[in-house]
Write a structure and sequence with these properties.
The chain contains 2 helices and 5 strands. Helix 1 (9-19) packs antiparallel against helix 2 (23-35). Strand 4 and strand 5 (71-79) form a beta hairpin. The relative contact order is 0.27. It has a 5-stranded mixed beta sheet with strand order 1-5-4-3-2. By secondary structure, it is an alpha+beta fold.
Length: 81
């Protein structure tokens, strides 16, 4: 089953902001998030059954999985200084 990946506006704005000084890092985030469409619970993701957190380099992605809607909602992107 393939999931649809949806970026919430706030998370997308955060990605745009971080891309100004770390374009390569943000590209890694987008690549990893795109892979969630095929495997929304990859090794290293942790959290509850529906809300998970994934570490990608210095970034942290918080996302929700909707089983009935077959989609992954990226709700927050943060970065470690």
């Amino acid at each position: 089953m393939s999931y649809q990946v949806i970026w919430e506006p706030e998370a997308l704005a955060q990605a745009e902001y971080y891309a100004k000084d770390d374009a390569a890092g943000v590209r890694q985030v987008f690549t990893a998030v795109d892979r969630l469409a095929e495997n929304p619970r990859p090794e290293g993701a942790f959290g509850s059954a529906e809300v998970l957190r994934l570490h990608i380099g210095r970034y942290r992605v918080l996302y929700e999985i909707g089983e009935h809607q077959v989609r992954v909602n990226v709700i927050h992107l943060g970065r470690i200084p």
